[in-house]
Design a protein that fits this description.
The protein is α+β, with helices and mostly antiparallel strands. The chain is built from five helices and six strands.
Length: 127
């Protein structure tokens, strides 16, 4: 299969069993250690199978932690940059316009760690 050949040529390890369906999505690990997933059909159209190495779909690492609410619902989250774009999305699309916390310029990895900790604590309380 063409997809397997291209993966071998690019030193990309296919982490899932592949079926004969071109619509199947498989997880990959490239030679740089990036974990990604790609639809087989989509992967055949890309020059590089690894989205991070190709620059496709790469987002800046989140360095912002926020908590927004509409009074009844509370939404913690993470973003990158100054966070304003994500906060605007929550306000416009979901009516979550009250910003309760906005912490910017966190070290790389800290925003994800804080979000994971908060969500784990809420889950442990059944929330």
């Amino acid at each position: 299969m063409e997809f397997r050949r291209r993966a071998r040529e690019q030193d990309v390890m296919i982490l899932d069993a592949m079926s004969d369906r071109i619509a199947q999505t498989v997880r990959l690990c490239c030679v740089a250690g990036h974990l990604t997933s790609v639809g087989i059909n989509t992967g055949l159209k890309r020059e590089l199978l690894c989205a991070r190495c190709s620059g496709a779909g790469v987002r800046p690492e989140p360095t912002v932690y926020y908590v927004v609410t509409d009074g009844a619902m509370v939404k913690p989250g993470i973003s990158s940059g100054d966070g304003r774009g994500r906060l605007d999305t929550h306000r416009i699309q979901h009516g979550l316009g009250q910003v309760r916390r906005l912490i910017t310029d966190l070290p790389v990895g800290a925003a994800r760690d804080v979000e994971r900790h908060v969500l784990d604590c809420l889950a442990s309380q059944g929330i």
